[in-house]
């Protein structure tokens, strides 16, 4: 009996192996550091495993839970403000024949188009004049500038995917424009808006640079705590903090995949 090797699978296997290493290699290193009690060069694996650093992180002096609560509060407020602006803006961009509509959508990308560092330095200088530095409100405003990109674009796509005839049918039965929007359009667009809210929440939860320049040292979020631990060489604390941040990101990604429909995705940018 002779076996024939399919040599075409070799390059594919190499590519898949490299991708798996790129994705799971850093995550594996993160998990090892999170349970390592002693680990130093030239040892490939930790010399001692344990959870004493976890106890330090979750102790009152570790400040992790307070920082997590601050991060969640800021992210929640960012979602509320972003959706409060994005829902009417997205509906107008989807339904009305606005002049320069494409330019308006493109303008929302401006905060992402320039390097963050000089932008945040100037924002911090302006906020200092108005007493917004070191405040929750100042950090929320900075996060909203980035969250609006996801909020408005996805909200516009969600409303564009809804057939106009549904609103017209509601109007023909005596509903006002506001009632038709509230009872017909908004419930149908809700899955897309929920996905938009999750993207904004995750963007805010992981935001570091803007929080550092506007909020530090009075406002401490989990990414700031991670940075402080990492820069101080406390890799166990930094790894545990990173894993805490990773949990909601993975969980919400499954929710986004569940609710963000293909017809909504096809309308993004249109």
Helix content: over 70%
Mean pLDDT: 82
CATH architecture of the largest domain: Orthogonal Bundle
CATH class of the largest domain: Mainly Alpha
Looking at this structure, what is the CATH superfamily of the largest domain? Answer: MetI-like
Structural class: mainly alpha
Quick one: biggest sheet?
Answer: 2 strands, antiparallel
Rg calc: 23 Å
Q: What number of domains?
A: 2
The fraction of residues assigned to DSSP E strands is under 5%
Structure overview:
This protein is an all-alpha fold. The protein folds into two domains: 9-50, no CATH class; 61-265, MetI-like (MetI-like fold, Orthogonal Bundle), CATH 1.10.3720.10. Helix content is 74%, strand content 2%. The protein has 13 helices and two strands. It has a two-stranded antiparallel ribbon with strand order 1-2. Helix 3 (64-95) packs antiparallel against helix 9 and helix 7 packs antiparallel against helix 10 (209-215).
